[in-house]
Protein: RING-type domain-containing protein
Organism: Mycena indigotica
Amino acid sequence: MVNFEWTSPVRRAPNRLLLSPIPNELYLKIFGFLEPSLETSPSESNATLSNLAKVCRFFCVYAISRMYRSLDLSGELDEGATSNGHNALCGLLAKGETYASSGRPLDDSMELALQVASFVEECTFRDWQSSKPERLMPMADAFLARNARAVRRLPKVTKITLINTPLTGPLIQMAYKLRSTLTTLCIHQCPLPQPLSQDERARLSKLTLSSLEFFSGALTTPFDFPPDTLRLQNLVTFKTDSAQLREYFFRRPHPMLRCLELDDMQLSEMPLFFHRLQNSPALTNLSILNVTILRSEDDDPPKVQKFADVALPTLETLSIPALLLDSCLCPTVRKLSVLGTQSDLCAPGAIAFAAAGIHSRLPLRTFPSLSRTSITPRQLTTSCLTELHIPQPIYLSIPIHKNLPTLEVLVLSWCHLNFNWPPRKAIHHQGIIESLSGKGVFPRLRELRLELFHGFSDEYADYMNWDLAKERSLITGHLSMMFPRLMFFTRTPVFIWERSGDNARWNVIIPHQYKKLVNSR
């Protein structure tokens, strides 16, 4: 059996006198040099960590904690070694529980599983209801129930994430059993097979969460989840796209709330919403992902008033659509993103969709085109921002280097839904990098990220620059002069460039999922 306890090695001089022990920090530096990086695939990472665990007990503890700190329990049948290993751990824990309840002694593998269980802090259930054949669903349900029963035995779990997984009785019972340690619950696109029973609602009401994420996403089936089921009064983080849950949440003050993320809001809600924000005086992070404009076909788009009476004295991070900029931006904000979108339900596409008698739980989103003047220099002049995320056309129309001399991180998006973009074949990387030149010098900027696509796939490969030597020369010749303090340059998502100093050589990092694609070019 593995023993996860260790003592610092004893050091002696040749005359056998004791020497001071080597600090644990030195061992950790050695471990950090050897541990897997972003360029390592999950299977390679597990192999490396498994080998490190065999070196000594000190390395064993850190390797096992890396491998099992976060469990990924997937219902997909083609998952890799990481998920399979995590499912195997749950199998041993469930088997050990059966042995213990019947008075049978645990074998070594079950004892080891109990020791490893003490390292687990987070657990994700994902894809337990996807594209499986109907005949396999009973088997998937059985394994889901088994894993939920096993996770109940994990003594230090603080976060549970459910993605595309039905909210079944065993999962609710699991959350209830973990209530003494569970602080974060994330629910993303999870159907509710049947209405909650009184017992299930009572169990969920016992959870004392500090963080809740609840997104129904693209679910088309009715989701009968009463908003008063969960205890929400002491939340520090709240994220949702549910109007019903949002309305219930804002009925009372939330003095501890620090992070708020909302999606699918209507523009008509904004006056009351901003008024209610004053009941969250500790708010530091506000994100509004999409605002929908409801109007008749002949009306002009409404203008958003500035809510001057809103006091958010602690707000530091703000992510909103451009039309809310005048309403929200305050002097305390240091990180600003205007990559949120605005939808217009009276656009021709939405009207034709409704006229055809096609109905959906979610309205058809249409994204009206914005111009470069949707954000003006005046809106950014008085800000002391250190981080800015904006659509690329805005960057070309505003002298950001003059308006924001304190900027340290800049993210430019080529894929914002409210802007028209040229065809993919027109995205030429030399032209993109050269277009960033001639816009003045950013003396403090240390990180630049270019977001070119919503999600990279093989179809974009022909539009990418794969000549790394040429790209390095472009960075050195153009970006290094405009951004003299630049340390990180990311061409999302394939290449990450970094250097250790102002005059150091640029080195590239290729995330493991793109290595095969790069090597095939």
About this structure: Residues 78-82, 348-363 have pLDDT under 50 and may be disordered. Residues 374-521 form one domain. The CA atoms of residues 303 and 323 lie 8 Å apart.
